[in-house]
Amino acid sequence: SMIESTRNNIESSFDRVVELGAEEEYVHDFSRAVYNHEEEDFASLDYEIVDEIFANDFRDESMTEKDIKKLAKAAHERGLKLGIKHNMAFVNIGKYIIKGLTGEIESSVEEDFAKFNSGHTEEWIRDYFIKWQTRLIERGKMYEKYGVDIMSITPNWMGPTFEGKEKLANELQKELIINLREVFSGKIHVELDFWEIINGNTSEWKKYDYYEYADIKEVRVYELPGRFAIANNPTKNQIKNGIGKLLDRFEEYSNFHGLKISVFFSPFSYKNAINDGIVEHYDVLNKDTKETEKDWEHQVDAWQGFFEAVYSREFVEGVNASTMWWDNAM
Length: 330
Prior knowledge:
The protein is an alpha/beta fold. The chain contains twelve helices and nine strands. A nine-stranded mixed beta sheet has the order 1-9-8-7-6-5-4-2-3. Strand 7, helix 9 and strand 8 form a beta-alpha-beta unit.
């Protein structure tokens, strides 16, 4: 289970997770790139990966040793395993708070992501992996100290892509996992590329096999996009059938690589969310955000349809049930 919370109610949150029957609890650690120049230049090598600070956007910050110790203790006392995922920002995300005043958070994030990943050079990729590996080994030592059970190597939110340099990135990912195992004895978690799975062909699926070096391979699902989309305002059975078709595609990928896959599922609580996906509710002046309508029953149907669809799928080794705090209908 992955449920957002605060330091003040870790224990009560973990109690609810246990009541739901979960075996693992995932939390997020945060990192950011700090450049040694004022102008924005995503091609620059002159940056460091450091702790995120709360003052940056008033919601996220890196975990301290005290945080890790408390989380691990709370999880283990309840018979839960603790997993840690990572968010990485190559922009000062505090600027998006200002964008919220104009209803442009979503478009600004998309623009920055496209600009950031517009063509990394071999030099940039090699430098990035040195820095990201250094960061993960530093964090891995701390997680090991307090008995964290699972650690992801995948940078969420603004992770780099490696179009045209997949062979290089694949080998560097393997090296990262091998070196991380020198300091961290728990399970290594990686995230599979959702869009590569649903849109790629077998030749594209061959570009990466570093997943085989990890223990948990997870794919995130927030919505049913493109050809997997279903009718608006669907019934539970329509959702089940739509998710079933998506799982069929995942199974093709699983069989191709000989992998067992964990599925992360996070349906939102507004009308037709199964087709429309994430809404950034900090984007308070955005027209689409304003027009979202709460729909608890739709979310219930999404969960029920998902569990009925995933039941008995042998290639699925786990389900990560997620709710997101920025979905203000939660």
